Automatic annotation (TrEMBL):
Matches recorded under Pfam families: PrmA
GO function terms (MF aspect): protein-lysine N-methyltransferase activity
Keyword Methyltransferase listed: yes
GO cellular component: cytosol; ribosome
Reactions accelerated catalytically: L-lysyl-[protein] + 3 S-adenosyl-L-methionine = N(6),N(6),N(6)-trimethyl-L-lysyl-[protein] + 3 S-adenosyl-L-homocysteine + 3 H(+)
Top enzyme category: transferase
Any single biological process term in GO: methylation
Originating gene: prmA
Source lineage: Bacteria, Pseudomonadati, Pseudomonadota, Betaproteobacteria, Neisseriales
Primary role: Methylates ribosomal protein L11.
Family per record: Belongs to the methyltransferase superfamily. PrmA family.
Xref: HAMAP family: Methyltr_PrmA (MF_00735)
Protein name: Ribosomal protein L11 methyltransferase
């Protein structure tokens, strides 16, 4: 199927009325943009989120979509009359139907963490069916495996989970770290996030991957001590959460921190050395992973 797209340059003062009138006249959509978009005269117009923008471009362009058999010239003339504007000139082009779902999906390929650990969208064949494959689609919560902060944690899990560990994932997002730990052999995993949508996504993703993990909002989290605690949050919350996170790590257990910029690593390592013997930092694209071993409390 194809559509006709009319491009109408018009005085900004009548653009909105004309776009409304085009919709009334039978356009399938009508969007207003800067007539000089993409040129040196392009004029960015910014507004506060949720606030109406009271400024208009000097000259506006309306892109209006019509059915392939519509008499576009007659409909534009009718709309201009209704909007009290002179009949504008326009150009017309044919727009072919696209498979938007396929186009979007093609932008997400499987992600190789290591030879044995892959993150694969559900619509893809696993590149290595023998590997540990997490099925994860881009969604409303952070954590598809493509971001360096997540990748640093996944690489640590891949290298250190030997089987039977208990894991606590603080700031679980999509649940990717808890789910990966379980698929790599951990005995149990619990995740926590302040965002209810992340808690829901994590539960859905665990079910999708056939693993049993529990996810909570912080106030509902169980008072557990785990062999491994991961927290891929940002430096600021990590500065405040040291004591709480340390309380969730068994003596001799491991902490894995991510979401830290390279120039914040020394300061964060200093904070966590109050409870942990810290390892040297590991860097990836300007981000840092910090790890440490919980000292026995005296
Ligand atoms: C960068 S994402 C990490 C998601 C996932 N764990 C990963 O590694 O990709 C950080 C997550 O931490 C959550 N978060 C931020 N501050 C938090 C806090 N104080 N307590 C619990 N969760 C928090 C956010 O809602 C977000 O989902």
């Amino acid at each position: 199927m194809a559509w006709q797209q009319a491009s109408i340059d018009t005085d900004s003062r009548v653009a909105e009325a004309l776009a409304d009138a085009l919709m009334e006249a039978g356009a399938l959509s009508a969007a207003i943009e800067d007539a000089w978009a993409g040129t040196e005269q392009e004029e960015p117009i910014f507004g506060e989120p949720g606030e109406p923008v009271d400024k208009l471009w000097q000259k506006s362009r309306i892109l209006a979509l019509f059915a392939d058999d519509a008499d576009v010239g007659a409909l534009i003339a009718l709309a201009a009359l209704a909007a009290g504007a002179p009949t504008p000139a326009f150009t017309l082009e044919t727009v072919e139907e696209q498979d938007w779902v396929r186009l979007t999906q093609s932008q997400f390929d499987p992600i190789r963490i290591s030879d044995r650990l892959w993150i694969t969208p559900t619509w893809h064949e696993a590149p290595n069916p023998q590997a540990v494959n997490l099925q994860l689609d881009p969604g409303l919560a952070f954590g598809t495996g493509s971001h360096p902060t997540t990748r640093l944690c996944l690489q640590w899990l891949d290298a250190h989970i030997q089987g039977g560990e208990t894991v606590f994932d603080y700031g679980c997002g999509s649940g990717i770290l808890a789910i990966a730990a379980l698929k790599l052999g951990a005995a149990s995993a619990v995740g926590v996030d302040i965002d209810p949508q992340a808690v829901k996504s994590s539960r859905d993703n665990a079910a999708q991957n056939g693993v049993v993990a529990e996810f909570f909002l912080p106030d509902d989290a169980p008072a557990i001590q785990a062999d491994v605690v991961l927290a891929n949050i940002l430096a600021n919350p990590l500065r405040l959460l040291g004591e709480l996170l340390a309380g969730h790590v068994k003596p001799g257990g491991k902490i894995v921190l991510s979401g830290i910029l390279a120039d914040q690593a020394a300061e964060l390592s200093g904070i966590y050395s109050a409870w942990f013997d810290m390892d040297p930092p590991v860097f990836d694209e300007g981000w840092t992973r910090l790890t440490g071993t919980r000292r026995a409390t005296v």
